[in-house]
Write a structure and sequence with these properties.
The structure holds 2 protein chains of 2 kinds.
Chain A lengths: L18 H4 L2 E8 L4 H16 L2 E8 L7 E9 L11 E6 L2 H7 L3 E10 L11 E4 L1 H9 L5 H13 L4 H11 L5 H22 L2
Parallel strand pairs in A: 1-4, 4-5, 5-6
Antiparallel strand pairs in A: 1-3, 2-3
Helix pairs in contact in A: 2-5, 2-6, 4-5, 4-7, 5-7, 6-7
Chain B lengths: L4 E5 H12 L3 E4 L6 H13 L3 E4 L3 H13 L4 E5 L1 H16 L4 E9 L5 E5 L6 H4 L8 E3 L4 H18 L2 E7 H5 L1 E5 L60 H16 L2 H4 L2 E4 L6 E4 L4 H14 L4 E6 L1 E3 L3 H8 L6 E6 L6 H7 L5 E6 L8 H11 L1
Parallel strand pairs in B: 2-3, 2-4, 4-5, 5-8, 7-8, 11-12, 11-14, 14-15
Antiparallel strand pairs in B: 1-9, 5-6, 7-13, 10-12
Helix pairs in contact in B: 1-2, 1-6, 3-4, 10-13
The chains are: A alpha/beta, B alpha/beta.
Chain lengths: 204, 379
């Protein structure tokens, strides 16, 4: 977990000396409706809660539309009790659309991690950003754009280490629709590989 | 990891709680953000011999659970604001006819169809005063997924014990939120069933006024004769215009709840012994309050927390005691509405205690930082 600026008060009014907040990791999956972001959030949370054994709260925000419109899922992870269920300042932001990146970048900590779909997000607000073409990889490497969310889960695992690889594999097996297990597991592996490569490339 | 640990959604917790409590009938009409409750009960109930019916609207949904309860099944419906508005007529009927029923209101932004996918606590007063006529409502507000499970069981217990409709007030965030939950073992949570008559049918009075205000309840088909109506009625259930009987009936309806406040009302307090400022919050907002209180204490501020779990009825005596704690100077009431339960606090605090309302109604949760800033303003 990234823990710098130990006593600097942030814009939420919280100071990192707050013992309650030190052991807290906050992730947002953001993009448009239909990209499978809420499911990605749920899968990460399920791996953390039921396999890694940490406390975890997953919340979401979406509009009345079934597809399109802004969509996001938030996951808060802690080994202690989680009081406030929503993020206060993101440690990691995944943005799969330019709009999501523009809207939520300001919710990210100064030393937080920004991961974007480099094909869909062309204008990044910082050089401290990891770009992976999730949707392109899904289409060309796996043959199904629907698995971009699972590729991003693999990348998040490799880059942040906040969830175990074994946990994600188990949950993808549990949650993948029947007949798509192989594709989804391949997508997860691809994400893990791409995540490792990107991490070595950037050295944050 | 143990098998009984699950990542569970708030709405799913209502279903788990209801199944534990012995729910056997659900009549409802789907509405965001409560739909998952109906969806899952449609699968679960038939497996235990229960019935699920999707009714034509919420008026009929409420009517259906009243009927099912009179026939002896533990009954529930689930809805959100617009549906709750339609149900209040039936809730009044269930109150008058003393029919155990549970209504889950997963609150969303209003008024009218408002914000289907956004959080709110703006039905707090509707849960108390929704139907016409003088009545005493019971409403519970959980703050976590696990507590949603526990309070669903409790709502069903209270409905059966006090023969009255009980509202479980959750909200969009809690309903859709997933959280790590340890599923209770069988028998871990107390389940209470309704008291049946033990007298011969010819002696039975469905609405008997007993010394403890509790009337045993026979089901339709048990062989006991009784009449059910929304008109003010005598002990056998037949309409009456005699003032003596009217007074007796309405007083009984009041006393059967108000004499048992110690059993019905749950209030959680923390750090009130030395608190100069208290944060009063219920439901999901209590979690922001808890975080803010922790932050304030880390800054050596003497701040306490008050969390009503039973929102209605108000246990005036208990609240007066809490609000009279020695050093208390101010109470911050944080709600996701334009100020509702704050009037209950104003009514009960000593004169020297300042009451400050912190409201948010832009569809987002109140943050710990907002509460902390209010605390700093007071100090």
């Amino acid at each position: 977990m990234s823990m710098t600026n130990h006593s600097k008060p942030d814009k939420t009014g919280a100071s990192h000396t707050d013992s309650e907040l030190i052991d807290r990791y906050e992730i947002r999956f953001s993009g448009s409706g239909g990209q499978g972001l809420i499911l990605a959030g749920v899968m990460l949370a399920e791996a953390v809660a039921t396999i890694d054994g940490k406390n975890c709260v997953q919340t979401q925000s979406y509009g009345p539309e079934a597809r399109g419109g802004a969509s996001r899922a938030d996951v808060v992870i802690s080994s202690g009790e989680i009081y406030y269920p929503k993020p206060m300042q993101l440690d990691l932001l995944l943005a799969l659309s330019q709009e999501a990146c523009d809207n939520y970048y300001h919710d990210l900590r100064e030393d937080g991690l920004l991961i974007v779909d480099s094909h869909l997000v062309t204008q990044v607000p910082t050089s401290r950003c990891i770009g992976i073409p999730f949707s392109q990889l899904a289409r060309h490497e796996i043959g199904n754009t629907m698995v971009a969310n699972v590729i991003s889960l693999g990348a998040i695992c490799a880059i942040s280490g906040v969830v175990s690889e074994a946990g994600l594999i188990e949950v993808v097996k549990r949650r993948a629709p029947r007949g798509t297990e192989e594709k989804n597991l391949a997508a997860l592996q691809l994400g893990l590989v791409e995540g490792k490569k990107a991490k070595d490339r950037i050295r944050l | 990891m143990a098998e009984n640990i699950k990542l569970m959604q708030g709405n799913e917790a209502v279903v788990e709680g209801a199944m534990i409590a012995g729910l056997r009938f659900f009549g409802g009409y789907p509405i965001t953000p409560s739909t998952e409750i109906a969806e899952q009960l449609a699968r679960r109930l038939p497996k235990v011999g229960g019935k699920f019916i999707q009714m034509e609207d919420e008026i009929a949904s409420m009517a259906s659970i009243i009927g099912a309860s009179l026939a002896g099944s533990k009954s529930m419906t689930a809805t959100s604001g617009p549906g709750f508005s339609l149900m209040v007529e039936g809730i009044g009927y269930a109150y008058m006819a003393e029919v155990p029923t549970v209504i889950v209101n997963v609150q969303r932004g209003g008024p009218s169809t408002g914000l289907p996918t956004k959080v709110s606590q703006s039905d707090t007063m509707q849960a108390r005063w929704g139907t016409h006529g003088d009545y005493i409502a019971i409403a519970l507000a959980p703050q976590s997924v696990r507590e949603t499970l526990d309070l669903t069981v409790r709502a069903m217990n209270l409905a059966e014990v006090y023969r009255t409709p009980v509202t479980l007030l959750t909200d969009e965030v809690l309903g859709h939120m997933r959280e790590k939950v340890t599923i209770p073992e069988e028998g871990e949570i107390e389940v209470i069933n309704r008291q049946k008559p033990d007298v011969p049918a010819s002696w039975y009075k469905h609405f008997e006024i007993t010394p403890n205000f509790k009337s045993p309840m026979a089901s339709f088909g048990d062989g006991y004769r009784f009449h059910v109506t929304g008109l003010t009625h005598d002990e056998e259930g037949f309409p009456t215009n005699k003032s003596v009987e009217i007074l007796a009936k309405l007083t009984k309806l009041r006393n059967k709840i108000m004499r048992y406040l110690d059993d019905i009302c749950q209030i959680e307090t923390d750090g009130m012994e030395d608190a100069h400022v208290a944060v009063y919050a219920y439901g999901i907002v209590a979690r922001a309050a808890r975080q803010a209180v922790q932050m304030a204490r880390a800054r050596r501020m003497k701040v306490g927390q008050i969390r009503p779990i039973t929102i209605w009825p108000s246990h005036d005596k208990k609240y007066r005691e809490i609000f009279s704690s020695k050093n208390l100077e101010a109470v911050i009431v944080a709600e996701l509405n334009q100020g509702q339960l704050v009037y209950e606090v104003q009514r009960l605090v000593p004169k020297h205690v300042q009451v400050i309302s912190l409201n948010r109604f832009d569809s987002e949760l109140i943050t710990p930082a907002q509460i902390l800033n209010k605390i700093k303003e007071v100090r």
